[in-house]
Amino acid sequence: MSTDFQHARIALGLQLRELRAEGGLTGRELAGRLGWPQSKVSKLETGRQTATRDDLKAWAEGVGQPHAAAGLVARLQAFESHSRSWRRQLAAGHRPVQDTLTVECERSTVMRAWASSMVVGMLQTADYARHVFSAYVDLHQSPRDVEDAVRARIQRQESLYRPGKQYHIVMWEAALRALICPPAVMAAQLDRLSGVIGLDTVSLGIVPFEASLKLPPANGFWIYDERLVIVEDWHAELWLDQPDNVALYLRTWEALAGTAVYGSDAHRVISRCRRALGAG
Predict the structure, then answer these.
(1) What are the phi and psi torsion angles at 62 (to 5°)?
(2) Could you tell me which residues are beta bridge partners of residue 232?
(3) Phi-psi bin for 117: left (phi > 0), alpha (psi -120 to 50), beta?
(4) Distance of CA 35 to the CA centre of its chain
(5) Gap between the Cα atoms of 119 and 132, Å rounded
(6) In the chain, which ranges are continuous DSSP H helix?
(7) Between vectors from CA 192 to CA 273 and to CA 184, what angle results, nearest 5°?
């Protein structure tokens, strides 16, 4: 979870504690009024649990300040979709960002990804990743730790071969054609994708250009164990862990995955992209 998100949750917890104190209630007394375990009151006040809108409304009623509910809910909404700016994240370079993603990968079992503009990091070759990181270093004017970032990304790919992990990755054909690297590097990258098809831990789907899309092929995202969604934009990442947001992205992923081709059909799409490079 992002540090900024946790800080916001702690701040909300402090406000809840102040309201309880103003109402002259102990944590045990408030828990009794609301029919909650005392541990829930403690976790909400210390920022160890994210409150729901219903929790906040019940809290305001329980402490005798129903008028405070609207402000609490507004504060919650402000950080439900939390933005982690690239400016802050990349202050120390790209390697720390990769290390953070590795942590999420390690603690997850089932991961789903959608990519519309470039090959997902988990399937990138080192050369392809090197061009991607170099482009973003120039864009964000961040420290040039390209080789460290590439090594971290490639090391994370070891989990592709770890029993028990499941990767369900879907990409638009445009991601296989965007020349963000020299044609020879792209050819090798496409060969890498062909080699991934058939791995026990990976389901790779490609949405062909000619497919009838149920949704526009918008921003890429990852879903980790139906508990966290990470969405990448030009200025920031969104880290979403509210159930309704996660459910929305699951529906989005399923709609996009339903238009993808797999197995030998995916091989054929990859092969025609490779032929378009003039690489055989």
Answers:
(1) -65, -30
(2) 237
(3) alpha
(4) 34
(5) 10
(6) 3-22, 27-34, 38-45, 53-62, 69-80, 86-89, 95-106, 126-140, 146-156, 173-177, 183-196, 243-257, 263-276
(7) 60
How far apart, in whole angstroms, are the C-alpha atoms of residue 12 and residue 76? 8
pLDDT recorded at residue 87? 84
Contact 176, 269 (CB under 8 A): yes
Q: Give CA angle at 100 (253, 246), nearest 5°.
A: 25
Please give the structure tokens belonging to residue 59: 């809290």
For the stretch 179-224, pLDDT in tens is 999 999 999 999 999 999 989 999 999 999 999 999 999 999 999 9
Q: What is the pTM of this model?
A: 0.73
Task: List the domains of the chain with CATH numbers.
Answer: 3-82 (1.10.260.40), 93-276 (3.30.870.10)
What is the overall mean pLDDT for the chain? 92
Q: Does pLDDT of 4 surpass 80?
A: no
Please give the Cα distance from 161 to 49 (Å, whole number): 34
Model confidence at 124, pLDDT cuts 50, 70, 90, reads very high
What Cα–Cα distance (Å) separates residue 111 from each residue in 8, 223, 240?
Answer: 27, 6, 15
Please count the other Cβ atoms lying within 10 Å of the Cβ belonging to residue 155: 12
The closest alpha carbon to 114, from 227, 215, 2, 182, belongs to 215
Q: 110 falls in which pLDDT band (50, 70, 90)?
A: very high
Total length of the chain: 280
Backbone φ, ψ for residue 224 (5° rounding): -105, 110
